[in-house]
Amino acid sequence: MDLHARKISLTARRDAILADLARIRDELDDPLPQDWDDAAIEQEDDQVLQALGNAEQAELKRIEAALRRIETGDYGYCTICGDDIAAPRLDLIPDTPFCAQCAPRG
């Protein structure tokens, strides 16, 4: 496993999430329209944006934890059992702290 490439990939995703979160914050700060119908639609849009922001914040935390594990040499090892996390699993979920067997418990 190429940790340098993995770190670059995780860092790029982290930067993209930070940009998305900044855009979401800007859109949520926009004033509501004066028209009631438009305001109702805008509030629904804001709720969707907040949900997206929450999901991205959770992903951001997982990515930052994975980057810390890379720095400490713990990346690629399950945080529950200590076994290796299979490379194909890390390819699919690069921020996962769990092997496939421990993931349901994590």
UniProtKB/TrEMBL annotation:
Domain Zinc finger DksA/TraR C4-type per the UniProt entry, residue ranges: 73-103
* Entry's transmembrane regions: none
Which keywords does this Swiss-Prot/TrEMBL entry list?
Metal-binding, Zinc, Zinc-finger
Q: Where are the zinc fingers (dksA C4-type)?
A: 78-102
Q: Identify the InterPro entries for this entry.
A: DksA-like_N, DnaK_N, Znf_DskA_TraR
DnaK suppressor protein-like N-terminal domain spans which residues? Answer: 9-70
Pfam family name, one:
DksA-like_N
What is the protein name given in its UniProt record? TraR/DksA family transcriptional regulator
